[in-house]
Amino acid sequence: MTEKRVVHVLTTVKGGAGKTETTDMLEAVLTLTGHRCTLVDVDDGNRGLARRVGVDNVVKLDWTSGIEDAPGWVAQYGSDSAHHLLFDLGAGISSSDTPVMAFLQTVWRMLHNEGARIIFYCIVSTNAPTSRFVERMVSTYGKIGTILIVHNDQDGSRAFPADIANRAEPQIDLRHQAPGIQEVRLRHRARLSAVIANPLPGYRLATALMATRVHAFARQLAAVSIIDPASLAALDGGSPPVPRLMYSTRRSSDATDERILCNGKLHDAHHALLANGLSDSELLTAAKAYRAACASWQSR
Predict the structure, then answer these.
(1) Which of its termini does the chain have fewer beta carbons within 10 Å around, N or C?
(2) Where are the beta strands (DSSP E) in the chain?
């Protein structure tokens, strides 16, 4: 079966809501499940995507692009039906009356008319308003594409605006990533798929935690028919198993393989100490093991 061209548009109403991070995750899902991606950085002021993955790994658009530029752009970047195009928009730009938005709307409609599937990702974080944002996206683009709400749990609170809970649009979660793991990811200026495929020395387990998050995101994308569920098999077996952790990895200094293993041993020792039905001797052994694990964790 011929693969259908897919256009992914990622947008949010407020800066810092995790739009570029979501683009990063989506690229990893698509690339690691066998798709080819073109990343388009439309944030002319910040260039967060280019800074994250490297300028050579993105197509940059400036905000002076106009409607007259659309046909040539589509011919250059939108002609391959096997490609996925990922547009990382600047915060709030989707509601602006600017030449670049007229350009983008023309590009998307041209691709839609040629049979492409268009998906608009409304990024909702724990610190971004949404009441009118999603509704505006539905009214503006609902006729040419699918509107998808992404909950980005930036701070781990899951305190999302209540006004989106009962909306009809499909909704998925991008789970929280510990700051220390995020620091490790940002040390490697490359696409996330490349970071996962080539972990930094000493950070294989931190990279495996990134991969685990990508896999969880991929499963949700499959559940709402953004990717083929059969493609999830390609994500299995590529990373080492990661231990369950006692503490969140708040600093990159705690994200080394050694520290993550130490954190995992502390978790396991604590779990063993709290097990039901331990005899006195077993409880003493578990307590000693927990004390040793604590000492190891605290000796930085």
Answers:
(1) N
(2) 6-11, 36-42, 59-60, 83-89, 117-125, 146-152, 171-174
